[in-house]
Amino acid sequence: AGSWFLSAERAGLPLPKTRPAMAKRRNGGCRRFCTSCLLGLFGCHWTPKKGLKTSKCDYAWFFLLFCIGLLALAWLYVALVTLNDFHNFNEFIFQKTEWWLDWSVVMLCVTAMLVTYSSLLMVLALCLQLCHQPLKLHWLHKGLLILTLLIAVAAFVGLKLQWSEEWESAHIALQATGPFLHIGAVAGLTMLAWPVATCFYRLSHAALRSVILVLYLGAMLALYLAPLGIDSPCFLEQSQLPPKPALFGHRGAPMLAPENTMMSFQKALNCGLSVLETDVRVSADGIPFLLHDETLLRTTNVQEVFPTHGHAKATAFNWTQLQQLDAGSWFLQKHPFPTAWSLSEEGMAQARRQHLPSLKELLVEAKR
After folding, report:
1. Are residues 254 and 229 in the same domain?
2. Which of 38, 63, 355, 364 is the most interior residue, by most CB within 10 Å?
3. In Å, what is the CA distance from 28 to each residue of 33, 34, 60, 131, 360?
4. What is the pLDDT of residues 65-120, one digit of tens each?
5. Which segment of the chain is annotated as a signal peptide (predicted)?
6. 85 touches 166 (CB < 8 A)
């Protein structure tokens, strides 16, 4: 074999490629293919171009991408922990448009898409840095990132203006989930150590290197000190925990039966609730009855029974007229909560028989 290779070399014949050379060529092809995919998905440059470098503007967009991703993730967390109160948002939209839809599903899906999108861009950027490729973000991605920023800011501003009490719910939820979020943040920052170190050593500007080093070390220091500020029941012994709060029935049990009906209050009492909360209005002839909205559109069939007075205020109807309304079928038609599907046939039939109760009926039931 050795003499054959020597003869072939002297004769000028092409030599067969050895295994290391073939493996190197194959690995190089795989790297080029991966690099092309990363460049194409991030900046729509499917072929690497020589001379392209990451500019200061590109680094600024990368920093903006990181901040937008964190903001979208924060809104996803707030939306998840306040999910139980999204019914108020659905009611608010119905009062404005008279169109019922479970907007919590829509909002969660949109938020999850925005978080996934910004996270994928972040992963692509980190992979490009590891492959020593420039961060040339495409203008379409820039536009979508600005749109993500506007949606997240609008969501936080709307929450602050319309439902500022929800921040208390988010704060309570943060006490329970704080330790787990801290573990996740530590894991995420640890995974970023290698890309940050690579970016740090590749930069030639001392100022940028200093900024990256200060930001990363500052984040590490903040995570190290974070447990000192976490006040969570997860850190308490069983004997140190305060007594469980008393359960209130907000409009009865609105996830199990039509709100503010006798069926709803009966189910709430069956669940062992100690307090019943309701909304009281007074009919045109002076009878106190139970209803949350100013009008009867959302929770009754007033549009069918009184077509010309459907948009009138509930207090404009007398008690005889109010007793003609069906206050339960809407619960089966609109499904304000996913639990509405769990009703048995008997429960559905009972819901269809519900009417607007008077305050006297509720007081009699509460005494029992």
Report:
1. no
2. 38
3. 9, 10, 31, 12, 82
4. 988 998 999 998 888 887 777 777 778 788 777 777 777 788 888 999 999 999 99
5. none
6. yes
SS3 280: strand
* Domain stops at, among 235, 257, 284: 235
What gap in Å lies between CA 310 and CA 160, rounded to an integer? 32
Please give the C-alpha separations between residue 81 and each of 113, 172, 210, 248, in angstroms, as whole numbers.
18, 9, 38, 19
Asked whether residue 55 falls in the same domain as residue 111, the answer is: yes
Ranges of beta strands (E only) in 39-187 are: none
Q: Answer yes or no: do 229 and 330 share one domain.
A: no
User: How many domains does the chain fold into?
Assistant: 3
Closest CA to 287 of 322, 325, 313, 259: 322
pLDDT digits (tens, 9 = 90+) for 15-59: 455 555 444 444 445 567 777 888 888 887 777 667 677 787 888
- In the chain, which residues have pLDDT < 70? 1-31, 48-49, 51, 235
To the nearest 10°, report the CA torsion of 258, 92, 275, 167: 140
The per-residue pLDDT for 20 is 53
288 three-state secondary structure: strand
